[in-house]
Specification:
4 copies of one chain form a homotetramer. The first copy, chain A, is of the alpha/beta class. Chain A contains 10 helices and 14 strands. Chain A has an 8-stranded parallel barrel, surrounded by 5 helices. In chain A, strands 2-3-1-4 form a 4-stranded antiparallel beta sheet. A two-stranded antiparallel ribbon of chain A has the order 5-6. Chain A is elongated.
């Protein structure tokens, strides 16, 4: 962090400022020029609130050089993190594919889908039991029954399960869920993030609808700062002016994240595009862009799906997608 | 809602479709043409999930004509709603001004600010006790002590108090808070919205960072559908590509909302612009655009504020803003 | 501009770098620390290409402190600029109202509209002769005949005329036009801007659909750098995710611009909102936000307008808007 | 196009409306219901201005069913178009790679880069002679000398050349240029598009900074409607709130375009990401997403480039990218 002081700051005020900064950790490096004094704050500045510095009366302006996140920063942890799920799936090491319906609807549905996606090569099963819906009149999930059905499907197929938590009030129901998903709308639900930092379960942290990569990493830092570093990031499209797709898949965030953090990154082409026919090309693109995995919505009867049918592929379509994905993984040594 | 059927749909399938729709409430009006059959769904279609209709096999395409919200829709409630706070402030009837610091920091601070803003003409006091912060290392509020200090300031000044709820886990602490604020990041926290629909306390619902007016009204509908129609909407700027201001104040949403809903709408120029020097012109603009009130951050020592000091005005600056605001209110008969 | 050097730069390379910078004008101020050397580039850095500096091999990073525009910068020209149109209208001194149809369609239309808007208090007449249209099949204006009709209307009413130039190929037709409008889609047509810098006619420079305030001022700088400082800026809404209005009026850009530049700023609520019923509240908001004028689309028969009828107000509606606008101007001493 | 009439429209007015529509081409199909009459406009509605219809007094609302572009619409031209450049490169048939510097700077530079990219497998050479620059003080290209140097490089390597036209005033200089590029900022320069519709040279039409896919295709329609169907579309990133990359690459527009149009689509990862280290993963992603080619900035000394050095790869890096690209093309049978 570089602080440019105002001109003619009194020694008294400057000393007070220096003391204030050092109390927070960083050391200070002075560069005194003829007209300007510039301070370089050296060390861990992630805990410094740049806005507070900026409004102090000795300060002309301040610029952050290093990023405001630390535990999830690749700079301090150069090796890729590998997140182990249910003792067997190692996300970040081998390409991971999470597949399943938007929402769990019935035993028949979830078992059939689970068996089909496993056969095609998926490594985890997804399914929503609690669904965040824009309208209060839409189907909002089977709730605890949905979790039960997922566990049933896990028993049958052996696939670890991933499901979204929409409220801390329900967290006890997720004891046997293998990966807790934090949805886009909760990416900045800081109370939820803090609480999840206290457990050691893998967290799938989706990117918020209109959040920058830096804000996303700050949310990961919330979980990690609490002690839980088992975090998988998931790009699911951002909101832009374009309406030809449901959201705009920001695929270039994959190499950006690979540079900034050691956490694994997966891509959800279903929510990003909102259309089942675009899932295949975007899944392939995700593999070669360097992503660590995919999250794909699969439904045995998309036309009857209670939620997001338009973006769900059938098990047959998923078979085709997986053929392409696995072939590209092979070529890319993933 | 208008449904265009595919060509050559069998009578059997059509009958099943019609039965399916009617079971959800609306009546159907047929327009059979030479090549196309168009169905008009008449009546309350707010509970119809347009995506589910769209993916049904007899359907070519579907367009929504009426809006998917009902309780908050002006069409079904042409008169303006007036929200009474603490038995005395009537939002929607008389121009309301909510003022106070971003976060409650000390007794001295909140009492001084409360007294100053009251004297200048504010009708409610704001103050954050629980603060959502992007960084886990930033100040997150005095929590229950903050609520206590707000109640203390209410006792001294008589001003009703407004404070943000960030997690349902703390809701019991808000029993004596007059208006519960739902922040931008929780606008689509549907579990929170549903829960707030069960109480009868006034809710200040801020617009999400990147949410459309329609999504915002759907979130209001969540609260209203639960039985609580005491909702005040608050525009606080949206996220765009522009960085000269912290967010982009979407002031034209005021007349848009006045057309679509009967709920009162206030404007927060502090968060929208992120800079105290832009609060005055935007406050004035809000008055004449037809807004029902303002929410302004005021701090007695902005340069020492633990949060959002850059956008907080001083009590003296607030005096000047209020002079302008009150003069415009008089001219506009508000 | 602050340049942070890489560590251990050889004296030779540093000397070459310093020579390179000084050759472009600025002086250099050294701040040598233990680990880092920071250079402050003092003086006029508007001609320095920050990207070129950034990629040089001695440079670790570079930050711009001052803005990259100079002639239009308020810092170097603290007084408001006043742009005189046709020897009588002084934009920036007295509130200016430009009104008229989106496109000139007939003598009857333009004369009737011109007479009505003049009577209501407009100070200039607008009318499109060359229309940029998204579809190649839409009406694209009466071209030179449209200019003739505008001149005819000027003769009748005395109102100076404003019309949009869409191609330098037609510039000779604009000899008698009082203000040349550069439309949103041409805001970064740098060849056009450079050419307009060579004349001394007032230029109305609309903000691009998705351009930042800084880019807009850089486009003004293009015109000004060529020698023509008769520039009026016009905010007309930006593109965002919101679709309830045609564009999103960024009204807070008015005080932002007032701080950054000495040029006058007017607001076009017709294009910004795209709906005639929102023109009145946004016109009022523009006045009190500090804008120097308005540009409003008026058509005698909006339902038959060949272009943008939905956003055009009738002469009667314009009368009402002007009553409000003039009353607010009086209160604001404008 | 579906028109919903207002209730109780007189027969007289309806007849006039029907006559008005039929005069523009489409036939009308009536669906009369109890309360509503719906008209289906059948046939070519691309020339109908939906806004004009919407504001007519008999009309309640109107919805477009088919797209407003025709010549470039895949519906009317199901086969992929193949654009032949310089009699040998067939874009749309075989994967095309356009490579070269942002701007032509010297004979040594352009010849060296041309030879290197040819050797690596590029099929066309790019180079800017006229550069649109945000600042009037930045390098704006060698102009006619730049074109001369490109032709020289073509003579040496045989590679067809691609260069950007920034003003119709210079079009004669482009007689020997093989592909005329229309830059992002000119995507809606309708005068330029119309003019280019009159020649038969291949046009590379870049997507505008903040333009939708539909607007982009309407711009292609401008060129095609004039008679020139030799159009190559180029995605180069769109403007969003994210700043980690220069723009946001909208890669899902590739399958969207493949559905809507028969024109070939290429991707420019250099401008989209703005950082040379992200060009490789995004180039690979473009291949497997179904793009017909790439446009990549290559400079022999990026650190000295007069323009966009940060996003230019070196010839050695380009060699590596091409190895990956060609391997993926082989697997994908492109």
């Amino acid at each position: 962090m570089i602080v440019i002081l105002k001109q003619n700051v009194s020694k008294e005020k400057l000393d007070a400022f220096v003391k204030h900064i050092k109390a927070q950790g960083p050391d200070i490096h002075f560069s005194e020029g003829v007209h300007t004094t510039i301070l370089g704050l050296v060390g861990d500045t992630s805990r410094i609130d740049i806005n507070l510095i900026n409004q102090m009366d000795v300060v002309d302006s301040v610029r952050r050089i290093s990023e405001p996140f630390k535990v999830v920063n690749r700079k301090f942890h150069p090796e890729n993190s590998i997140i182990t799920v249910d003792g067997k799936v190692r996300v970040g090491e081998k390409f991971a594919v999470i597949a399943g319906p938007c929402s769990v609807e019935s035993e028949e549905q979830i078992i059939e889908v689970a068996e089909r996606v496993k056969k095609a090569g998926a490594t985890m099963l997804r399914g929503g039991a609690f669904k965040p819906r824009t309208s209060p009149y839409a189907f909002r999930g089977l709730k605890s029954d949905g979790i039960e059905l997922l566990l049933e499907a896990k028993k049958v197929t052996g696939l670890p399960i991933v499901s979204e938590l929409t409220s801390l009030a329900n967290i006890d129901l997720f004891n046997d869920v293998d990966v807790i998903q934090v949805g886009a709308r909760n990416m900045q639900n800081f109370d939820m993030l803090s609480e999840l930092g206290k457990c050691d379960k893998p967290i799938l942290l989706k990117r918020g609808l209109a959040n920058t990569v830096q804000e996303w990493l700050m949310s990961a830092e919330y979980i990690a700062a609490g002690g839980n570093e088992n975090i998988i990031l998931c790009e699911r499209g951002i909101r832009t002016f374009e309406t030809a797709t449901r959201n705009t898949l920001d695929l270039s965030c994959v190499p950006v994240l690979k540079e900034k953090t050691h956490l694994p990154v997966i891509v959800d082409p279903s929510h990003a595009t909102g259309a089942s026919r675009f899932v295949r090309p975007m899944s392939k693109a995700a593999v070669v862009s360097g992503a660590d995995g995919l999250m794909i919505e699969v439904h045995n009867h998309p036309e009857k799906a209670l939620c997001d049918g338009a973006q769900s592929v059938t098990p047959d379509q998923f078979d085709d997608i997986m053929k392409d994905v696995l072939r590209l993984c092979e070529i890319e040594n993933r």
